[in-house]
Specification:
Distance between the termini: 69 Å
CATH architecture of the largest domain: Roll
Strand content: 25-35%
CATH superfamily of the largest domain: Transcription elongation factor, GreA/GreB, C-terminal domain
Order of helices and strands: EHHEEEEHEE
InterPro entries: GreA/GreB_C_sf, Tscrpt_elong_fac_GreA/B_C
Pfam family, one: GreA_GreB
Shape: elongated
Largest sheet: 5 strands, mixed
Number of domains: 2
Domain Transcription elongation factor GreA/GreB C-terminal: 81-138
GO molecular function: DNA binding; kinase activity; translation elongation factor activity
Protein name: Nucleoside-diphosphate kinase
């Protein structure tokens, strides 16, 4: 029989649905980040229970991602006294402008709210530094001056 007369299912024409990518490396989180992950899992479970059957697949995919993040979450060890690390708020000067950021885990990161992931280049430059220290960043020597560090 000719392919012209074959009935194709609608499934053949849908875009493939891939799993959400998991960031590489350890899943270090702050206590707030761990609570956010658990809240997200609970919210998705409620939404799946209430959703119509045709909307559940996308929600289940999201739930698999968040369940994996919850299962692999490790509370970040607290940094040393006055040392920038995961779970700290840092105030620094970069290019003459003062900024304040929180260094957090991947799932808690929100650059618009001044929370960056510990794997971000700026966070990597800051981690381990103490107030008063000059840091290299973006190929420039002494580009950052760390003013203060406090726990979140």
């Amino acid at each position: 029989m000719s392919v012209a007369f074959r009935r194709e299912s609608d499934e053949e024409h849908l875009e493939p649905k891939f799993e959400l990518p998991i960031p590489p490396g350890p899943n270090l989180v702050t206590p707030r980040g761990l609570a956010l992950i658990r809240d997200r899992v609970a919210e998705l479970e409620r939404r799946i229970a209430a959703a119509p059957a045709d909307a559940r697949d996308a929600l289940k995919r999201d739930l698999r991602y968040w369940n994996t993040r919850a299962a692999t979450a490790e509370l970040a060890p607290p940094p040393g006294s006055d040392e920038a690390g995961i779970g700290t708020r840092v105030r620094f000067r970069l290019n003459g402008q003062s900024r304040t950021l929180e260094i957090v885990g991947h799932d808690e990161a929100d650059p618009a709210a001044d929370r960056i992931a510990f794997s971000a280049p700026l966070a990597r430059a800051l981690i381990g530094a103490i107030p008063g220290e000059q840091l290299d960043f973006a190929g420039r020597a002494d580009a950052i001056t760390l003013d203060s560090v406090e726990p979140i």
